[in-house]
Amino acid sequence: MVAYATGTLLAAATLGMLPTAITRAKDGLQIVMIFFLGGILFFFILEKLVIWRHCHDIECEVTHSAAGPIILIGDAFHNLIDGVVIAAAFLVNFHIGIAVSLSVIAHEIPQEIGDLAVLIDKGYSKKKAFFYNSLSGSTTIPAAILGYFILDIISEAIPFVLAISAASFIYIALSDLTPELHQKVGLKYSLRQLFLILAGIGTMLFIFSLK
Predict the structure, then answer these.
(1) Which among 108, 101, 93 has a CA at the least distance from the CA of 209?
(2) Has this prediction a pTM greater than 0.70?
(3) N or C terminus: which one in the chain shows less Cβ crowding within 10 Å?
(4) Which of 140, 112, 102, 81 is closest to 7 using CA atoms?
């Protein structure tokens, strides 16, 4: 799932979201790319502040009793942004909306499982960990609904939302997911990972071809 998610995120960002943002911005190519670059820096700063960080390992850099709440807050914020991203994508094009939704699902599954494991390791019971993790994940739907109506009103902002969203997809793929893939070495693992990354890219290409 991590390798497949890497492919879908990279393809959705570079083949769908960024080109669409540039096209819809018309003469604002440089501004779109500034938002894209600023988005990458923004997510880097958030990760440094341990708000964005999704910790997948039992030995987490987020320390002691604060780890659980920080993970939950970061997850809620992450899912809220995902909701707005999905809404913006559907407002642009139905097929892009489907592609972005699939990318979000593909990278959320391993991340949510990782978060659940960390919460249990930090002393939460399985029921509480599942409940709180599900609660933090529930921000996606209301954010998507709100984003749909707000972005429809301020449609001129959609290219820049897509640019920042593309930055988040690429940042997650290269900063969070790719290092996990490098934890396993060997020809068999590498070929399997490459195949699944290409499968993720192929899935996005297929969806974009349905336009």
Answers:
(1) 93
(2) no
(3) C
(4) 102
